[in-house]
Write a sequence for this structure.
């Protein structure tokens, strides 16, 4: 193994943090090359700390880190992007919290997926900060691309039973199998949720398009709700739990 | 393999190491200190711990931890009940009391909104604050101002925004502690949010 330097410099986004000891915090950050890391930031709960303002959730920072025994230690932190627009709106804070929780949950990704996940995270935060697109549509696009990057891309083109291309009719979603069954194969399924053709069409569009091609999409409220329901049930099946930030997000979003 | 430590010692070490900020080494040091110290020291600690749970309660007005209900601050006729300072934790009440600048009363939320941790407004003592404010509006001393003294971090700010959204429609003045540069700080090390806040909240000399 190559000799490891005792300190390193990295870009990072702060995902979450918890208090530790008298004035320290343990930060969970996501980095483009090392993935999800837990670092200790000493003394940052003191009001005189020079680093604390740079280590708030969702901030994109440049970090100097010294290797430590239990946790690596943050020795310097400088803000690259603070996303002030995002943090001045309750609904956007709630959505960013959800994005951060998902990245935290999937953060121990394969090395080759890390850079993609990093770019996805930054794009989501930038859009929540200043973007004109619909923030909920952004979350759906984020979810489906996150699933793809992590190797859980749902099959939206062909029937998982007979392999035939799915037709624009009501098809059947199987969370366990990770995709859809055509009506005739779907009849034989024990658990299959009927999903309207429009919803499948939107899911496909989200899956194969960059955000720039999706952001101006206008959906009917009922379609939007069904797309959300499919993706969130699918994510919960992959994670084997419902993300805990969701109920906070729903509460904060309802405030507008 | 036989347990190398006497059971009562290892029990105490385990109990200490469950406390925040105390690792196994510190826990052992504390346990051995008590073992060797005068009986009185250990017994005083044991009594204090017992009383901690037996003789404290939540003040039914401000939800601070107290030894009487209502707590001494809420029961004090010298305090102004029309100004409520809203804080995250009981320790924040102590911090503000130390300034001797505030003569109003408090409300302790017992936390702050944190989406990543799954803590929403309904997990805080916001409903109780709303009930308290509404009750006061029918008395001779209606609440006129909420000073939101949550922490100047993302969670504290989110909580402050939420409270403003909730209480302003009732005609209350909702204020926030000023945010800016700390005493003894160095301008060149300030992050951009702090500096921006300091600029917005600048005051005339």
């Amino acid at each position: 193994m190559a000799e490891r330097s005792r300190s390193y410099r990295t870009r990072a986004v702060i995902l979450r943090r918890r208090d530790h000891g008298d004035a320290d915090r343990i930060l969970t950050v996501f980095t483009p090359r090392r993935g999800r890391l837990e670092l200790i930031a000493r003394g940052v709960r003191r009001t005189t700390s020079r680093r604390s303002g740079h280590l708030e959730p969702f901030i994109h920072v440049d970090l100097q880190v010294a290797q430590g025994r239990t946790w690596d230690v943050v020795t310097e932190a400088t803000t690259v992007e603070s996303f002030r627009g995002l943090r001045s709106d309750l609904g956007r804070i709630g959505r960013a919290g959800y994005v951060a929780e998902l990245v935290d949950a999937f953060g121990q990704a394969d090395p080759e997926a890390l850079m993609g996940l990093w770019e996805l995270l930054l794009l989501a935060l930038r859009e929540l900060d200043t973007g004109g697109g619909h923030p909920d549509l952004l979350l759906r696009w984020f979810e489906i691309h996150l699933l793809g990057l992590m190797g859980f891309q749902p099959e939206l083109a062909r029937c998982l039973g007979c392999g035939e291309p799915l037709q624009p009719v009501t098809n059947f979603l199987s969370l366990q199998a990770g995709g859809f069954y055509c009506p005739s194969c779907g009849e034989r399924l024990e658990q299959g949720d009927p999903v309207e053709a429009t919803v499948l069409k939107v899911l496909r569009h989200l899956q194969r398009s960059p955000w720039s091609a999706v952001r101006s999409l206008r959906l009917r409220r009922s379609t939007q709700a069904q797309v959300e329901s499919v993706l969130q049930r699918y994510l919960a099946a992959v994670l084997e739990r419902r993300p805990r930030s969701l109920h906070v997000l729903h509460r904060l979003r309802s405030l507008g | 393999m036989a347990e190398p430590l006497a059971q009562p010692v290892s029990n105490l070490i385990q109990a200490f190491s469950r406390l925040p900020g105390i690792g196994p080494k510190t826990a052992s040091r504390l346990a051995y200190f008590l073992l060797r110290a005068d009986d009185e020291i250990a017994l005083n600690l044991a009594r204090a711990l017992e009383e901690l749970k037996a003789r404290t309660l939540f003040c039914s007005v401000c939800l601070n931890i107290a030894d009487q209900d209502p707590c001494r601050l809420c029961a004090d006729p010298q305090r102004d009940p029309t100004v409520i300072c809203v804080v995250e934790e009981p320790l924040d009440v102590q911090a503000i009391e130390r300034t001797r600048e505030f003569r109003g009363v408090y409300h302790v939320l017992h936390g702050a909104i944190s989406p990543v941790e799954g803590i929403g407004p309904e997990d805080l003592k916001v409903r109780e604050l709303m009930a308290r404010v509404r009750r006061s509006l029918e008395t001779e001393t209606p609440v006129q101002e909420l000073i939101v003294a949550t922490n100047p971090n993302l969670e504290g700010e989110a909580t402050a925004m939420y409270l403003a959204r909730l209480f302003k429609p009732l005609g209350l003045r909702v204020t926030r502690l000023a945010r800016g540069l700390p005493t003894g700080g160095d301008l060149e090390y300030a992050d951009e949010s702090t500096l921006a806040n300091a600029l917005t909240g600048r005051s005339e000399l």
